[in-house]
Specification:
Elements lengths: L3 H8 L1 H45 L7 H20 L2 H33 L4 H47 L1 H6 L5
């Protein structure tokens, strides 16, 4: 009985929560990776065009360079906010998974000590069940947290690259005048 499913069952309700969080988190990470790759290949120009069109549609006189820059930055931040949506969920999953594992650890130890207080050490299997629950949920929490933390940081880095490419397209004169672009 050493299958993955048996470990999930032995881990109890905490493990079921971790499995659900894992599925949600991986779904979001895969969706965002596909979205970012699409934006990275051909979508930066369409994002740039939509930002410029949004600024033009505001009907604000665009004679002052500072007003133009402020409006472009505001629209760019709004576009990036939409691109980033969902990443916070991945970060939350990466943060709470070890805490859920720790909760399972505490519940398992509590179960083990409850068994000892009721039956003494005459039946070690009762004590071992609680310790098993504790260890399984700890491992489960870490197994969920580690890849979500890595995925979150990787995807956040991709957002940063998209932001730099947007800035290069929206503010080319700033990059040229400051020697940031050749």
């Amino acid at each position: 009985m050493s299958t993955l499913y048996s470990y999930i069952v032995k881990g109890g309700p905490i493990m079921y929560i971790l499995v659900v969080l894992n599925i949600i988190g991986y779904s979001i990470m895969i969706w965002k990776l596909i979205q970012f790759l699409a934006v990275g290949k051909r979508g930066v120009q369409s994002l740039t065009d939509s930002i410029v069109n949004a600024v033009r549609s505001k009907g604000v006189p665009l004679k002052d360079e500072h007003v133009i820059l402020a409006l472009l930055k505001d629209e760019m931040n709004a576009a990036l906010y939409k691109v980033e949506s969902g990443l916070n969920t991945v970060k939350i999953i990466a943060t709470i998974s070890p805490l859920l594992g720790l909760l399972g650890t505490v519940l398992g130890i509590l179960s083990a000590f409850t068994a000892i207080s009721k039956q003494g050490l005459s039946d070690p299997s009762q004590f071992a069940g609680g310790i098993s629950l504790a260890l399984i949920t700890t491992v489960g929490g870490l197994i969920v947290a580690i890849p979500h933390n890595i995925g979150y940081n990787y995807l956040l880095r991709m957002v940063g690259r998209i932001e730099v490419r947007l800035e290069e397209r929206l503010f080319p004169s700033l990059f040229q005048s400051e020697g940031l672009r050749e």
